[in-house]
Structures are given as structure tokens and as C-alpha cells.
Amino acid sequence: MIVRRLGREDAAQYRQFRLRALRDSPSAFTSTYEEEVEKPLQFTIDRLLSRGRPKDVTLGALDEDGQLLGIAGMTIEPRRQVQHKATLFGMAVAPAAAGRGIGKTLVTAIAEHGATEGLLQIGLTVTEGNERAERLYRSCGFQEWGREPQAVIVGRQPVVKIHMLRFL
Predict the structure, then answer these.
(1) Per the database record, which ranges form the N-acetyltransferase domain (predicted)?
(2) Residues 81-118: pLDDT tens digits?
(3) Where are the domains of the chain?
């Protein structure tokens, strides 16, 4: 397995991987499958190339055949007084690859990228009840700092998001 920054050549595969994750785990993401499926491939290319935000990154874990096993992104706050912070987003591992340490490898790579960029902290949210993801983030040094009731509405159901933070 290799972990690397995803680029233009990965856009179609990344888009399909992300759409599958959004469809299969709607409460785990703020974006919805219905919103994302309507966006053109160019939107995905722009995201991967971090247009206008060169320090942002989307990483992929790929097998020896170049197939995505997992994805994770990091966006750095653009405003001057909060440029020391980033958000980990879009974390997903293929169900067939779960339990192989791919998530931990991706989160670690994101944190290393953040430290290289001079960040002081990375935040994220995880859906309450997603114990596997919460354990992963805790094992990577993230700590809970709060819970947001009704953070997202999936269908008609309010979902609580746990806010977590890791200092670099």
C-alpha cells in the first residue's frame, strides 16, 4: 500500500469512491450523495488540485494495482488569525479493506502534512455512535472537546456530531 497526494489522474476513481461512501454511510458526512453526484468531474479535479488553497491536501491509500483503499482530506483555515488550524474531512476506507490499519495510516499522514505546514492543531467531527471511527481518532491522538446536537439532519433524523481535536 502507498499513501500519496491525489491529483487529476485520480479524479474519476476518487469521485466514485467518495460517492460510494456518501451513499453507504450518509450520517458520516456533511455532504450528501444527491448533492455530490450532480457535480461535474471538474469539481473533483479542482478539489484534488486544491485550487486557490495550495496547502490543502487530499490523500489516498492505494493498493499495488493503483486502486483506492481509503481517502482523507485536510483543509487549512484561510483567515489569518486561524491559519494555525485545519480540519480533517472526507475520511473513508473501503469496507473490504477495513481493519487493515488504512485509516490510521491516512490520519497519521494528514497529521504529518499538517505539522510540515506549521499547523498547531487539526480538528474533525465524527458521528455519535460510529464507535469504530471514534476509536481510530482517539488512537491517533484526537480528544473530544464537545458534542453538537442536530449537527446534521439525515432524512428527518437529527444526528449528533462529536468534535475532536489533536494538537500537533
Answers:
(1) 1-166
(2) 999 999 999 999 999 999 999 999 999 999 999 999 99
(3) 2-167
- Name which CATH class applies to 2-167: alpha beta
Q: Positive or negative, the Cα torsion across 160, 74, 105, 115?
A: negative
**Secondary-structure breakdown of the chain: helix, strand, coil percentages, each rounded to the nearest 5:** 40, 35, 30
Collapse the DSSP code of 60 into the 3-class scheme (helix H, G, I; strand E, B; otherwise coil) and give the result: strand
In this prediction the pTM is: 0.93
* Distances 124 to 16, 34, 68, 79, 96 between C-alpha atoms, Å: 23, 23, 22, 18, 24
d(CA 113, CA 5): 10
